[in-house]
From TrEMBL, chain B:
It is a multi-pass membrane protein. It is found in: Cell membrane. Residues 1-45 are annotated as: Disordered. This is Binding-protein-dependent transport systems inner membrane component. InterPro entries: MetI-like (IPR000515), MetI-like_sf (IPR035906). Keywords: Cell membrane, Membrane, Transmembrane, Transmembrane helix, Transport.
Length: 286, 295
């Protein structure tokens, strides 16, 4: 049986069936997985039962500690921009004069939001976990920001319509931008790029544990990770995956890229999410 | 009888007989208050069916969560914006609706059928498609802005997208047909001689409208108004696409509470508020209609 839905919905379903799980394994974002772990819905994964485990990039091996999860894909988040119109070298360049009224920013509620805010904080010299400084910076410029987007497809449309010239986006959405016929660029920023990771978890009391392990191992295998990468579904967490340059262009791919990712600690996300949301709502939401 | 941890006498026999919510407030409050309390997470802590969670705090029935909802400035802004946009859309669609409906009703039958067909046509197109069309039309490089710049009304394109204006335009286009159709059927039922009679007796057009047409078609106005107002309150796609998070409405706020915060309690409060607003609007319109009748 396959359950779909976004990460939060999956988490809600797992929680509802906590005492009698009908789901053996699930995939979700790192912070939702940590939330599940804290609620006691998951159990540690015996990584010795995963023959492909050693092939994973280091950051994917044990992102939550205690082997509570194994990363199977990740993505970089940086700024996509019109190279013929603006130059962007820092996260703070999002608020330059040329971009007034021509830039979109991810909503704090999206997976791109907090990492992007974190990098804005770094750019203005205050990357405290409460993100107050960064939210303040965005709030200061909120009238010049076209929208706080909630879906990546929305940004692509605004870019296509020339409504905006720049926006922080996840690499998984990049494919659409490079085909727009504009001079689009993926920013190399002096603060670096951020991103996110998705992980697999094993539910506590899973009834088909052996099958769950078999499935996880299958998913992490070089063959399947290569196929997923070639179909542009997910960037590979398996370091042995080799893809063509053309495919790699649309992925978060290669040891160097993976090492450069400045990911927000899932515990930080989980512990601060509510306060980010209320800070955001207070300063920007109205 | 036994002494419960919460510091009150509980009769085991009654506990069996009373409904769950009562027994909860009797027997379980002690532990419930101690653990849950009215802290920041009060919404997610209260138990019971999701639809009733908004009324529940500390295991008893209360309106405190509703008061709490309106304590937040963001929630108040969103509430007033929703009410305001709903009212404006209803009022404007009534004005345009009367003009359109009256012109259609006076047409010969074939032309009338065609015009009604045109009015109905947008209703057959998915609201998603209709709303997305507005993104293109209202965009910087869209038809509206190109016309504005060409006419010299503004040097640079005006930002319409993700403003209240965009949401207003989207909602008006979405629900105007409902108002027109309600008014057409009301006007068709109006005696054919009423308007000429009033004219013969010396009434000007304004008097004809206020004293003859309006009282005779008020039913249609009440129905159309209720449909448009309720529709505007509960529309999700249009405010989500044309307004986004910068122009939150109650419905988009509700969605945000559920998907982002997993906060079904606030969501049920919003749903209740929407229902109350819809019913009140209907009652208010009916009241206005009867009051006019008596005069």
């Amino acid at each position: 049986m396959v359950e779909t839905g976004n990460s939060v919905e999956r988490l809600a379903k797992l929680e509802a069936r906590k005492d009698d799980p009908e789901i053996d394994m699930a995939v979700m974002s790192t912070h939702d997985a940590l939330s599940a772990a804290r609620k006691g819905i998951t159990q540690s994964i015996d990584v010795s039962r995963l023959s492909n485990y050693d092939k994973l990039y280091d950051i994917a091996k044990d992102p939550l500690g205690d082997n509570l999860a194994v990363g199977y894909t990740f993505y970089a988040t940086s700024i996509a921009y019109r190279a013929d119109e603006v130059t962007i070298e820092s996260w703070a360049d999002l608020f330059q004069d040329k971009l007034k009224g021509r830039v979109a920013f991810p909503n704090v509620s999206t997976n791109q939001g907090p990492p992007a805010l974190y990098m804005v904080g770094k750019a203005i010299g205050d990357d405290a976990a409460d993100l107050k400084a960064a939210i303040g910076e965005v709030a200061k410029n909120k009238d010049d920001i076209v929208t706080f987007y909630e879906r990546s497809s929305q940004v692509a449309q605004l870019m296509q319509q020339e409504e905006i010239l720049a926006a922080p986006i996840g690499r998984f959405a990049w494919g659409a931008y490079s085909k727009m016929g504009f001079d689009m660029a993926w920013a190399t920023l002096k603060e670096g790029q951020t991103g996110g990771m998705n992980v697999m978890i094993l539910t506590k009391g899973a009834k088909n544990e052996d099958l769950a392990y078999e499935f996880m191992d299958f998913w992490l295998s070089t063959e399947i990770q290569t196929k997923l990468a070639e179909a542009l579904v997910d960037s590979p967490a398996n370091s042995e995956v080799k893809v063509s340059d053309e495919i790699a262009e649309n992925l978060t791919y290669g040891a160097e890229t993976v090492e450069s990712l400045q990911l927000l600690d899932p515990a930080v996300i989980l512990d601060n999410r509510e306060s980010w949301l209320s800070e955001w709502n207070a300063q920007i939401g109205q | 009888m036994r002494w419960s941890g919460g510091g009150q006498w509980v009769c085991p026999r009654t506990q069996h007989k009373v409904p769950t919510h009562v027994s909860e407030s009797d027997g379980r409050t002690g532990a419930g208050v101690a653990r849950g309390g009215l802290r920041g997470d009060r919404f997610s802590r209260s138990r019971g069916h999701p639809a009733f969670r908004g009324f529940r705090a500390e295991g008893s029935w209360t309106l405190a969560s509703y008061a709490g909802f309106f304590e937040s400035e963001l929630n108040r802004t969103v509430f007033w914006r929703t009410l305001k946009l709903g009212a404006i859309v209803t009022a404007v669609s009534a004005v345009i609706g009367y003009a359109t409906a009256y012109s259609i009703v006076t047409l010969p039958p074939t032309a009338r059928g065609r015009m009604i067909g045109l009015v109905v046509m947008p209703l057959m197109i998915s609201p998603v498609a209709r709303t997305y069309a507005w993104i293109v039309i209202l965009g910087r490089t869209g038809f509206v802005n190109e016309t504005i710049v060409w006419l010299g009304l503004s040097d640079t394109p005006i930002r319409f997208l993700f403003t209240e204006t965009a949401v207003f335009i989207g909602l008006l286009q979405l629900f105007l047909p409902l108002m027109i159709l309600s008014l057409i059927s009301a006007l068709e039922n109006m005696p054919k001689d009423a308007v000429p009679a009033a004219r013969v007796l010396g009434a000007n057009w304004l008097q004809v409208f206020v004293k003859v047409i309006l009282p005779l078609t008020k039913e249609g106005l009440v129905i159309g108004g209720t449909l448009v107002f309720t529709g505007s309150l509960t529309a999700y796609i249009t405010p989500a696409i044309l307004g986004g998070s910068k122009v939150l409405m109650l419905e988009t706020l509700l969605y945000q509470r559920v998907t982002v915060a997993n906060d079904f309690a606030s969501a049920s409060i919003i749903a209740m508020i929407l229902m109350v607003m819809s019913f009140s609007a209907n009652l208010l319109l009916k009241r206005l209609a009867t009051a006019r009748n008596k005069r």
